[in-house]
Amino acid sequence: MLDLMGKMRYIILLIVLTLITTLSLFLTGTVNGSESHSYLLLITGLCIGIIIILGGCELFANGVECFGDRFNMSHATVGSLLAAVGTAMPETLIPILALLFAGKGHREGIAVGAILGAPFMLGTLAMFLLGITLFIRKLIKKRPRAEMDVNLSALTFEMKYFLVIMSFLLLVSIIKNPLINHITGGLLIVVYGIFFFYSLKHEAEEGEEYTDNFHFGLFLGCPRRVRWISFQILIGLFFIITGANLFIGYLTAFSLKTGIPALILSLLITPIATELPEKFNSITWTLKGKDTIALGNLSGAMVFQATIPASIGLLFTDWTLGTRELFTIGSALFMGAIILSYVSYKKRLPATVLLIGGVFYFIYVLTVFI
Known about the structure:
Blueprint: H1 4-32, H2 39-70, H3 75-87, H4 89-101, H5 107-139, E1 147-148, H6 152-175, H7 178-199, H8 215-220, H9 226-257, H10 262-274, H11 276-287, H12 291-316, H13 323-346, E2 349-350, H14 351-369
Antiparallel strand pairs: 1-2
Helix pairs in contact: 1-2, 1-9, 2-3, 2-9, 2-11, 3-12, 4-5, 4-12, 5-10, 5-11, 5-12, 5-13, 5-14, 6-7, 6-12, 6-13, 7-12, 9-10, 11-12, 13-14
């Protein structure tokens, strides 16, 4: 039986969860229920959303590390599977919710845009931010070199997988045949299952270490067992999804108040917001020197987003893509090819290669404004 102190800790946890959920729902209702919002309210909502996301990312990342340590998983496996799938949940839910609840004239456009925007943002903007992080760490002498110290074998496998999937997706998008779309949608689910199976076999490299701390153990006295680790991971995901929902709602209201057109909002701002968990976690792991998990979080999420959400789009929409959507597929392909080529020939991944992702994103921004 739990002692009195243990029971009090769990009661406190329940109260904290309830308060955060209530606050988030209240703030979301506030921004949705009024046509005029003060900048103070909007900025407060944005800050609270970011804090909730950050808290969720920390709990999730810590739980994922403990889970990987518990089952003797390599950093590559933890990054490309556990971390990638978990942090991909917020943006994966967007196309599903759009197809279920959005207006008939907009649901497919929103869904397809969210599906293709995710791997594009991960392969361009997120990689760019990771490169910036490496340069800053090098400048302040926290790293000897501005390059990723990663499991190159695992990264090569994931990039090859991603390039094959995206190339096939581009071909299917150009053909525009409903039957082929449906067959491809079903195959993509199988393809990700195969990827998952082989990613479990990534071997650990020498010197890989996980965290010695288990947050629920430190704050609540929970034993470092699978059920408590899993519970912390789920709580982290809950915070990530709750914070992302709140952040996107207030970001939308803030953008509209400042006069930013809805098109720019849907094409630029919302995709950036939905990718915050991946960016936060990857940068955090890079700061901790766990580069394989950091990069695997992005590359694994790219494979996931190119398969499972894409299968939803192919199966439940007419999958009619315009020039901008095809550009996002092509950009993600080019960026993946650049990373794979450099890693294959040079056996290293410097920050300068990751910064190229910013060029593709900048071109995309120009197409939106032009």
